[in-house]
Write a structure and sequence with these properties.
about 675 residues, metal ion binding, 39 strands, D-amino Acid Aminotransferase, Chain A, domain 1, eight-stranded antiparallel beta sheet, Dna Ligase, domain 1, single chain, Single_hybrid_motif, 18 helices, about 35% strand
Length: about 675
């Protein structure tokens, strides 16, 4: 594309936070935006905020966000003259970019040929070698026979990786530490690559243990100018998925940094790259060497940290470059200020093997004073159909230590209800000594948490304060809680007038809260007592004096099914405590509890991928009965008890609701 390309209305072929981010960029330049959405996203914020919006299909991505024909028809129907793909979905699909241009629309991204060339890991590494960019030793030949691959594996030596040529996100990748395992690794990598990418081609690459992931942001225009906008470190990863990113990359020798940046520009120039792109490297601190991994031909999830330290709006420049404008700055104009960190916020439970969380967000109280790119708000529904990342928290400070501190403060003030998030886990990563001392690497999570990670819980003092917050919340406005909490509380088992009892949902004995005059007292089941003078819950602040010392903490009280949830800011971060009142206890007893031991139910909405048993099968407790797909992840659902399968309520391909019954067992003690 050369010369000026005029457009006034941009269709955004994406959803969630990145759709809102692109909408902001359009508004900045006076452009109209068109949102395309699925049935599941009909009420999403990005739809309401667009200038125009069109439903393009069902909730499944294949019916909507991957439906090229529906997207192009939406562009025609709304008069859009340009398309921005965001990231994920069709953003690195060369066929989609070509189809957009064939329809007479402007594709806001690189040339289709550049997307295709960098989309093949084998071709991308060949291009990198030709541009003088270091690549890891390995085999990337066209001969894909078992004999040739095994021959090359023996020559390469262990450890090495088998990787899908068209892969990404860790799919189609296998680590081989023993040559005897190579045949199985090659076969399984091929099968996964064929299933995920419709391309079974693989290549072999030396494995660099304890390596870091460092990437360079590039920006190229249609006039041959390519600049780098600095580097980022994305080494904190789980299953090759990034968790926390920072800019610039810390603890990197300046000579290595300069070579990485220059190599990224050379590669982009060599392929005639336009728009924003990212060249990713593996950096081996032990050898002091770096190696080309791949080039992402799109806007990255982590682009905000680069924007924070450079002051350059990447989406704005994607739009300007697509219009044919030359870059209005030189490499010398790009200045770097301070340090930025991005935390990916996902609806998942890290303490339960990162189980996806779905449902309606009943409370959304983000911190003030920091950048938050998000696709949700209070009332939004987190669906099982899409990726679990729902927001990104971005902080900027003069140095890395300050950025870490600022991120922790922001996370400690973040309260969300209705759907569980990974904030406590991300906080644990951010404050881990390995991260602070630069000992982290791409496969280092088992070293950071060798016994697994456990979510912090409120200590007895914080539990007592949570009960007080609920006590004050339930009091009528303007009345003292120990006088006006209702007759059932006046006769509660606390033992004296004005007292109320609150049960943590996992415990049998209550916390007793009572008051006299200006002092509110909470007594734990073990007898520990905390007294708070002038206790008050004003808005979202719990305040008072303990032993004469004033305190004030963020506190949110929200109703949940069968109990109350109190979000309380503590020294360990934002904690969530589930409490029942006496009424809740009575209702719990009346309904006979919340679980059925012999019934396997869906922990979340999802699609049934596999049913591994048949009626009459005898199973042990913990055996996998059903595999459920939710948020692009497979969840193995185990048998709650040992016994015999008596009923199967689902089949592969079924879409099931949260808590839907899946398998009925006759427990072993009955058989």
């Amino acid at each position: 594309m050369a010369g000026e390309m005029s457009f006034t209305r941009v269709l955004i072929a994406n959803r969630g936070e990145i759709a809102r981010r692109i909408q902001r960029g359009c508004r900045k330049l006076g452009l109209e935006s068109v949102a395309v959405f699925s049935d599941a996203d009909r009420d999403a914020p990005f739809v309401a905020e667009a200038d125009h919006a069109v439903c393009i299909g069902g909730a499944a991505p294949s019916d909507s966000y991957l439906n090229v024909a529906a997207i192009l028809e939406a562009a025609r129907a709304t008069g859009a003259d340009a398309v921005h793909p965001g990231y994920g979905f069709l953003s690195e699909n060369a066929g989609f970019a070509a189809a957009v241009e064939a329809a007479g629309l402007v594709f806001i991204g690189p040339e289709p040929d550049a997307i295709a060339r960098m989309g093949s890991k084998i071709e991308a590494k060949a291009a990198a070698e030709a541009a003088g960019v270091p690549v890891l030793p390995g085999y990337r030949g066209e001969d894909q026979s078992d004999a040739r691959l095994l021959q090359e594996a023996e020559a390469l030596g262990t450890p090495f990786l088998v990787k899908a040529s068209a892969g990404g996100g860790g799919r189609g990748m296998r680590l081989v530490s023993d040559l005897g395992d190579a045949p199985d690794a090659i076969a399984s990598a091929r099968a996964e690559a064929q299933s995920a990418f419709d391309d079974p081609a693989v290549f072999l690459e030396r494995y660099a243990p304890r390596a870091r992931h460092v990437e360079v942001q590039v920006l190229g225009d249609t006039h041959g100018t390519v600049l780098h906008l600095g580097d980022r470190d994305c080494s904190l990863q789980r299953n090759h998925q990034k968790l926390i990113e920072e800019a610039p990359a810390a603890d990197l020798p300046e000579a290595v940094r300069d070579r990485m940046r220059a190599a990224a520009v050379r590669l982009a120039q060599a392929i005639g790259y336009r728009s924003a792109g990212t060249v990713e490297y593996l950096y081996d601190p032990g050898r002091g060497e770096y190696y080309f991994l791949e080039m992402n031909t799109r806007l990255q999830v982590e682009h905000p940290v680069t924007e924070a330290i450079t002051g350059i709006d990447l989406v704005e420049w994607q739009l300007r470059i697509a219009r044919g404008e030359p870059l209005a700055l030189t490499q010398g104009d790009v200045q770097f200020d301070g340090h930025a960190i991005e935390i990916r916020i996902a609806a998942e439970n890290p303490a339960e093997n990162f189980r996806p969380e779905t449902g309606e967000i009943s409370l959304w109280a983000p911190p003030a004073g920091v950048r938050l790119d998000t696709g949700v708000e209070a009332g939004s529904v987190v669906s099982h159909h899409y990726d679990s990342m729902i927001a990104k928290l971005i902080v900027h400070a003069p140095d890395r230590a300050g950025a870490i501190r600022r991120a922790v403060v922001a996370m400690d003030a973040f309260a969300v209800g209705g759907v569980g998030l990974n904030l406590a886990y991300q906080r644990a990563l951010l404050t881990h000594p390995d991260f602070e001392a630069f000992r982290h690497h791409t496969s280092g999570l088992p070293e950071m948490f060798p016994g697994g990670w456990t979510e912090p819980s409120a200590d007895p003092r914080d539990m007592a304060l949570a009960a007080m917050a609920l006590h004050l919340h339930l009091a009528p406005a303007g009345a003292s809680p120990w006088e006006s909490l209702g007759s059932w509380r006046l006769t509660a088992p606390a033992g004296w007038p004005g007292a109320a009892s609150y049960w943590e949902t996992t415990k049998d004995d209550p916390i007793r809260v009572n008051g006299s005059g200006s002092v509110l007292t909470a007594v734990q089941p073990d007898g520990q007592t905390i007294a708070v003078e002038s206790a008050a819950l004003t808005g979202c602040r719990l305040s008072g004096r303990i032993d004469g010392v004033p305190f004030s903490r963020t506190a949110y009280v929200a109703r949940a099914p069968g109990h109350w949830r109190v979000h309380l800011q503590t020294p360990a971060g934002m904690t969530a405590t589930d409490l029942r009142t006496l009424e809740d206890q009575h209702l719990q007893r009346a309904t006979g509890g919340s679980g059925v031991a012999d019934l396997l139910s869906a922990p979340m909405p999802g699609a049934v991928a596999e049913v591994r048993v048949a009626r009459g099968d005898r199973v042990k407790a913990g055996d996998t009965l059903v595999v459920l797909e939710a948020m692009k992840l497979l969840q193995s659902l185990p048998a709650p008890v040992a016994g015999v399968v008596t009923e199967i309520y689902c089949a592969p391909g079924d879409t099931v609701a949260g808590h839907a019954p899946l398998i009925k067992l006759d427990p072993e003690e009955n058989t």
